[in-house]
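Sample pair:
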Amino acid sequence: QKRGLGRRPQRIMASQIALRRGGFFVRMGPQRRRMSSALCSPRAEEYARKVTDFMHTNVYGAADAAVWKHAMSDERWKIPPVIEELKAKAKSQGLWNLWMAPYLDPKSEHSPALKVEEYAPLAEIMGAVPWASEIFNCSAPDTGNMEVLIKYGTADQKERFLTPLMNGAIRSCFAMTEKEVASSDATNIQSSIVRQGDDYIIDGLKWWTSGAMDPRCGLCIFMGKTDPTADRHVQQSMILVPMPTEGLRLVRPLTVFGYDDAPHGHAEVEFKGVQVPASNILVGEGKGFEIAQGRLGPGRIHHCMRLIGVAERALSLLCKRAHERVAFGKPLSTQGTIRSDIAKARLMIDQCRLLCMQAAREIDSGGVKEARQNIALIKVAAPQMAAWVVDRALQVHGAGGFCDDFPLAFLYAQSRALSMADGPDEVHMQAIAKTELARYLPKP
């Protein structure tokens, strides 16, 4: 990502992808091919063009280079000015809160209220540049946290936290995973939320709290136990913790294969006697597990949409490198093993895109519960697909692929981590198999 980003890429037809080292762009033309099946309506086409044009004009090239350079500098825990500048520009063009589906914003008061199926190709376009989703106020964990507040927040909670989040004035984090227990089983959570008069006292050690390192982070949604003696699925509650707050300490930033993802970051966070008003509880005591399940469904599919953009970027880099490099007297692009990898990558990407669109359509038509099987399927398939495609691109780049002259090492870290984030593959595979088996149970 450090080289060649200042050059303006030439125009190419349809949805082909061109790269100049780290520079990347998708061009939507009148003869769209790969994304044509994903553009399900005239409105989807309109917004795909708008987002693509915005990315061409403002993101690919100099801005991407500036953000990458900043992330590698001593100032990386500060926000690069270009981020806030581009957020204001996207907002002025109506490219804001694009993730917010009609069931969340039925009157289109805060967004275009695109269907999930209409948003999917936009997320793919944004996903090719890891930091770009924030420009459109479409980045995790804020989208999931906003959805929680829309569904479960009181009027006061929405005014204090949802409104600034929807306006892009603050960022947020979600504190669920714990260091000492297998947090893929949410009933294992040990952190405590204890009622004391008109307040709750919070204690616990969380980690992989994504976004907590961001200096703009103004809200933490915390999950802990309010009643350890209750049924195992109603012991947990969620509560809103303003940041910064006395007793909340950022212990350290964690790294993903050596990348600290500054300035967003993934933090280990200590909560020691943190005191918040009882009015900060979400819905009521014992609703934490229920809220967690509702929050994770849409967030999972958003990650998968973006991963398709990551895979397209990696495949583009692979193809360009294969044309440029010569080994043993002929271009790599003529080698049978390379061609096999390219063909397999195209198969896998397009299959995942179709599966993602199927899950999106089910959410639109029947809600998250109706779509849970396909959400689980794509949550397993997309990270595995993206990691495999990026890995093949790394291999074709030789030693260069493993350093920061290219974005591939970083993209691999991001892709591989998502087989664990929002639930490990094994948990989703269990759920998939359980649903399949249930179809064949003998009727009583």
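The first strand starts at residue 17 and ends at 20.
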